Structure formats: C-alpha cells, structure tokens
Amino acid sequence: MKNKSVAKMVFLLGMMAFWCNGDNYAAAPLIVEIAKDLHLDISAAALSVTAYMLPFGLFTLLFGPLADRYGKARIINFAAFGTAIFSALGAMAFDLPSLSIIRAINGGFAAGIFPVTMSLIGDRFGHDPKEFQNALGKVFGMMFLGGASATAIGGTLAFVGSWRLVYLVYGIAELIIAFLMLKILEKQPGTVAVLNLGAAYKDAFAKPGLLKMVSIIFLVGAAVFGSFTYAGKFVETQTGYNILVVGLILTFFGLATVVGGRRIGVLRQKLGNKLLLYAGLLACISWTLMGAWHSPVLLSLSLAGFGLGFIMIHPTLVATAQQLMPARRGTVMSLVSFNMFVGGGIGTFVNGKILDHWGFGAIFIFAASLILLAGVIASILLQRITPVASLRLQPQTIQAQKSLEVE
Q: What is the pLDDT of residues 290-322, one digit of tens each?
C-alpha cells in the first residue's frame, strides 16, 4: 500500500475505534435519563449496558477466527455497518426489552471492530516493528480517547437533545466511517484455509508465550478499565464540577494515549524492553497520587500520566502477541480483547468492593499496583520471548510461518 493510503487506513480505523468505544462509555451517564424516559428503575435501565457488554465479550472470540479465514477488511466492513445501524436504532427504543435487544446486537457487531482492526494493522505493518507499534499506538490512542471523552460528548448531546440523540449521533458517525472504509480498506484473502474454531484456539493455547502475554493483558485490563470506571465519580466528588466539566478532565487520559501512541515504536527502539518497566512506574506513580488530589490541574496530570504509561505497555504486548502467531492474528486479537475486557469487568467488580470498604484512594492504589506488576512481568518476559533486535521479521519469514500454519 502507498504511504497516503496507509495513513488513510490508520486514520479511519482510529476514528471507527473512537466512535465505537465511545458508544459503549457514553451510555453510562445516560442511565438516569433513560430510566426516567422509559419509566424504569435505574437498576433496570442499567441492564442495557450489560446487554451491550455480554455479547461484545462473547462475539470477540468468534470474529478473530472469521477474519483469519475470510479476510480482515471484509469482517471489519461487515461489523462496522452492523454496529452503526444498531447504534442509531437505539434512539428508537420504546421500552427496556427493545433497548436491550438493540444494544445486544450492537455489542455483538462492535466485537468485530477492535480485535480485527488490530490484526489488520499487524498484517500491514508486521514486517516493520517500529511502524507496527506506532500504528497500533495511534489506533489504541483514538480508541481510548473515544472512551475517555464519551462522558463529555454524551453529556453534551443529552443536554441539548436527549439520550436518544446520543445513540443517533454515534450511529451516524460510525455509518459515515463505514462507507469510507469500503473504499479505503484493501481487501485481502484470509490467512488460513479452513474455519475451525477448535483448531484455532487449540493452536493458541499450545503456545505458552502467547498465554503469558494475554495473562498480562488481563492485568492491564483490570487496572485500567477496572479503575477508570470510578474515575469520573471521584473527580466529581473531589471538585464538585458538573458532568460536562468532569468529562473534559477525564479526556486528558485519552489525549495522553493519542500523543504517546504516536511515539511508542520510536521509544521501544531506543529503550528496548525497559520501556515497559518505565511505563509501569509512570502509571503507578500517577495513579497512586490520583487519590490525593483536589486540584483539577493535578487530577488532569495524573490522568495523563496514567494514560501515557498504559499506552506504552499495551501496544507492545499486543505487537508481541501477534508475532507469536502471524497467520492467526485475528485469533490472537480475540484472546487479547477477551482478556482485556474480562479483566476490566472483574477489576470493576473488585474495585466496587474496595470502594465500599476503603474508599476511592484504595481503588487507585490497587490499580497502580496491578499496572506496575504488569510492567515488571512484561519487561522480564519479553526479554526471554523476543529481544527487540529480533523483532524485525523479513517478509519471506512471515510468509513461511503463514504457510506452516495454513498446513
């Protein structure tokens, strides 16, 4: 692909990740308004969030092998149109069952965006470690900016319109990008000859290095998703600001992931696997201090530091995991996404218990400890699995690996 086409591809994939991830997070501040409009209890309205997340987690395990068999671009296009249409249809829900069904289908399609996007980037950039990690960092940065800014975007749209406008706007934005991706994404055949879910995951579980990578990603998910869920309420409690201002402060996490993601490949080449240790320390210190601040400036700095540390760790783990099974990148990314979101779900549950007993400060200390542990383990493990100098695989080597896995 030419450089301009590559840049467009990465930009569009990043924008789809922005809106798709935001689609999930924008729902949280809408629960009260949804409950009032549909005459529901808040706990009942919250089921619409669960209805989105459960299919998302389950279908993540399906879309990766599908992409390996039928081609990443085809699966992304299919998933993009599906999630866009059902996101917009959320604006037409008239009761809890209709909203839950629409959001469940929406989540099922959205599950095909994140893992397949990252595996497509691996196919396009896997021969160049620096560009590979830079591209991953850019898309991950946009993805988490979408999640971090969703509170502000969703709150603003709900303020000027209603909760229905939020789903409609996100759906339309995703639909526009889906049409653009039809033209930009280059269609390539699948990398395996037969669709066999059992064989795909059997191969994955047979690789100890890959299992160790996704286990570390589980810790990262528990640290980041598990604590960020409570960050908005904490900032509101500390500052007394309304949801729109709180949303803007939370956006500093996402902005840091975008800025840091653009340089992750360069930093990895300069610092090697020590980057993961430094990133873990940065994230740990930033998140430990988070619980002590009242100043919006200092809260923003802690959010930015945590986001920067996270984006230095996660794309590096993802890039390494993909290189362990280059012909089944889709399957690898299904395992990565599944562990990331399951880790986030378990982390959110555990942190809820921590909040009840010890308060917000303990949540941030616990999450800080987890991400430091992830950084330390990852820096040691990557040194054993694949030193930085050996990451540059030649195209013929990659093709040979693919041929072996197809056979």
A: 999 999 999 999 999 999 999 999 999 999 999
- Do the domain assignments include residue 179? yes
CA atoms of 335 and 60, how far apart (whole Å): 8
Average pLDDT over residues 189-197: 87
Amino acid, res. 303: L
152 assigned to some structural domain: yes
**Start-to-end Cα distance in the chain:** 27
Residues 6+ away with beta carbon under 8 Å from 126: 132, 322, 323, 326, 329, 393, 398
Considering the domain boundaries, does residue 190 fall inside one?
Answer: no
**Two tokens, residue 225:** 């998703």
Spatial neighbors of 127 by CB under 8 A, at least 6 apart, are 392, 393, 394, 395, 398
Q: CATH number for the domain including 134?
A: 1.20.1250.20
Q: Which residue reads 């699948």 in tokens?
A: 190
d(CA 350, CA 72): 35
Residue 345 CA to residue 377 CA, distance in Å, equals 22
Q: What are the pLDDT digits (tens) for 35-65?
A: 889 998 867 887 777 788 788 878 999 999 9
In a domain, 114, yes or no: yes
Q: Strand, coil or helix: what is 275?
A: helix
Please answer whether residues 377 and 317 qualify as being in contact, where contact means their C-beta atoms are separated by less than 8 angstroms. no
In the structure encoding, which two tokens stand for residue 25, read together? 């997070």
Residue 364 CB partners (closer than 8 Å, separation 6+): 227, 287, 288, 290, 291
